[in-house]
Amino acid sequence: MNQFCTFTLAGHLFGIDVGEVQEVVLPQEMTRVPLAPRIVRGLINLRGQIVMAIDLRACLSLPARPADEQPINLVVRSEHGAVSFLIDEIRDVVTVDGQQFEPTPDTVRGAVREVLRGVYKLEGRLLLVLDKEKALATGASVPHARGGRDAARNHATPVTAAAGEH
Amino acid sequence: MGEMDDLVREFLVESAENLDRLDQEFVALEKDPGDPKRLASIFRSIHTIKGTCGFLGFSKLEAVAHVGESLLSKLRDGAFRLDGELTTALLKLVDAVREILGRIEASGQEGDESYEALKAQVSALNEARTATAGGKPAPAPAATAATAATAAPKAAAPAAAPAPAPAPTPVAAVVPPVATPVAAPVTAAPPAPASPAPAPVAAHATPAEAKRPNDEPAGDGAKHAVTETSLRVDVGLIDQLMNLVGELVLARNQILQLTSNQGDAGLTATMQRLNVITSELQEGVMKTRMQPIGNVWSKFPRVVRDVAVICGKQARLEMEGKETELDRTIVEAIKDPLTHLVRNSIDHGLETPAVRTAKGKPAEGVVTLRAFHENGQVIVEISDDGAGIDPERIKKKAIEKGLLTAEQAAALSDRDAINMIFLAGFSTAEKVTNISGRGVGMDVVKSNVEKIGGDIELKSQVGKGATVRIKIPPTLAIIPALVVVSSGGCFAIPQVNLVKLIRVDSEQAATAIESIQGTPVYRLRGNLLPLVDLDALLAGEEADREQILAKKRECLNIVVLQAEERQFGLVVDRIHDTQEIVVKPLCKMLKSIEVYAGVTIMGDGRVALILDVCGVGQAGGVVAKLQERGIAEKHADDAASDFVEASTFLVFQAGGRRMAVPLADAARLEEFKREQVEFGGDAPVVQYRGEIMPLVHAAGDPSWAHAEGDVRVVVYALEGHHFGLVIDGVPDIVYEAVRVRQPGSASGGSESVVLQGKVTELLGLRRALERVQPGVLDLAAAPAGA
Prior knowledge:
The structure holds two protein chains of two kinds. Chain A is α+β, with helices and mostly antiparallel strands. Chain A has a single domain, classed as CATH 2.40.50.180. Helices cover about 20% and strands about 40% of the residues of chain A. Chain A is built from five helices and eleven strands. In chain A, the strands form two sheets. A six-stranded mixed sheet of chain A has the order 8-1-2-11-10-9. Chain A is globular. Chain B is an alpha+beta fold. Chain B has 29 helices and 29 strands. In chain B, the strands form five sheets. In chain B, strands 19, 20, 21, 22, 23, 24, 25, 26, 27, 28 and 29 form an eleven-stranded mixed sheet that branches. Chain B has a six-stranded mixed sheet with strand order 10-14-15-13-12-11. In chain B, strand 27 and strand 28 (about 750-755) form a beta hairpin. Chain B starts with a helix and ends in a 5-residue tail after the last helix. Mean pLDDT of chain B is about 75; it is low at about 135-225, about 430-440, about 625-645 and about 780-785. The interface between A and B is medium-sized, with 24 and 24 residues.
């Protein structure tokens, strides 16, 4: 029996182990960090604790968030200290059992495959389980190069394809 | 169980302190082997360890300590005197104790090692010395001390009597008399320990027991007072307090900002109080983190002794300003660099006793540690009275290692030369010892010191010694900083790096900002200051003059910064104000970005990045990177300030070297027949326009005067007189702006420039003549007919 804190990102349902989540906070004022890896959207002041905000869409090579949407902060504990994943919407905590689990299908390729632990087949929906450390590691390795954005776009398709298959 | 753990932990902490003190005391004792106070104190420390570990059931440790204790008790009683061999054995014993304690700390167990060899060695020494010393009359210190004590008359007799007898008896006999005098001077309350005359064994134990602070506070007034007024506090707790105070400072700043516009008098008054209290609290907590630098120094007497023994040298350590306080993070950070420097001083700096005596110095070298405050910074100096550092040897080494060309070396000042030892991969030790000489030290020392915002410099006088001077900030946690705005964000610049602020009106900006080969510069008091645009830098670009000017700013703000030995101007959008900021570390992922030193929270609660001025300079291309650092960088500063517009040079060969003189300096170019060259005294001259013109060779090569062929001369006119600079071959005229140059040094080196893509020695007029042939100016100044 596993419990996942679920959230949506570009139309997909993702989950992260409840135990890894510190808190969920409303949109915060962010300080941009020039020259940082592309996934770092900025730093936020969480009651005196400085937390790095990570653009999870960029990590997963998903299309960028529309400018008028404010992201929610999902603060998780990681090797990099507390890190805030910027997500679209927060959903329920769901309890799943192992029978619903399936490893990430082979058809899922690119950046997304790297950062998924697997998939839970929920009723009418797929829950993609995120490996946060891997998400951070893959994202961090992309330097602040101007070419980075194009490279990301190329990977955007596989997720959509994978989600459509099931 | 928890209680037991606490006891063990307390024992470990206490023992660690005792051991550190032991190291120092042994070294001090070696100088003055008869000092009864020190002997007693050492004995007590070991005895305390032995006693406590027996109680806690660490039998191996107890056995090791016991061997040391019995040897020490003899020493203390004056049965024989301490010498080098005994000290070494005892220090080894201390190391063994330390090892066991380390294991206990790590695993809670003593481990399997039982140190039989060491114990046997110490015991053997003990017996051997006892046997030899036994033949002599009662040792002086014991006797004299004993007479002063109450128990003396009775005890002194047995002490002397059984002297010839072998080991066991003297131990018991010798103990009682000295136990008393030892206790007397230290305790200042003699009656208590002095009374136990009855059983020798008890007498032996009691005075030492009395020193244990927990057991018998009444016996030791001084110590008692200290334990009552000071507390041992966990470092983690202090760090936590520090963090909280940091938060409080930030909250205060925020409230100050929010309430600054309110007219409420009551609120304002409360705010002021809050302000003052917070500042005082901050100061207080910062103080708790301060540690005297002596804490780090305490292990150095031992280091000095050990290194000196290994190197076969004699050395003494002197310390001044032990009480100078530093933040504990800084104390931690300078520990290793300092140790390295101290070892270096002995290994490289001090000469062997034989050499020293030959030079008329005392055989024993002195290494001095000095710490003091200066301009709000802490200065730590490590000096020795050794051979000093020979700049010529450094230069030779640098040439060998390919760090310098011979010409560059000649142009390098002595001060710059000796500071080359801070370059990576540089070691001048003739042979590699296991202490130093592998060339991995000094550059690491330098980068460690720079990491905490410090600065390191080396001074030396050949034959007299060398001094390393380290300048460090006393604290890092809360620093004053200038807040600037650029790229739409706030950035904090540590005040230490700040030189000045310059504001240029937009109308003047176009003329004030000049450009040299695309690099924007600003004229600051005649020097050219390279400019870095923060906006562009943070966008990962480099801005040229036009881009800087193109930005619509009502005025141009230049923050003049000092990074290492260089100054540069940082162009920012706006300058905010100065604030005390709390430095917080950057997240792991962002640490690799060189332009940031950390983060902080501003008064309005927003996060601001702290700029790393060195990193900014490096990213902006105005400060050389660590790995690229070489000699060129040392003079880069002068290079920028000496920058010249394009001008005409006369380029020629002389003595196989490529040289140039500014054409403007020369009066004419003449060709003389070989026969015209005459000699006035030793110096070659020609008759020129009714006067005798001295000739000097551009490369200082005197053999030209006896060579064949016509002589080409660059004629200079100086104060109505003419001089000839003899050159080889036909000169070339070059019109070029000097972009790369390596200035000469005060000691007479000439300047090198790159002309036509080749390194060329540039000869200035007056200095060139003087350098090539000293005295030539005097010759010219004298009446022509003389």
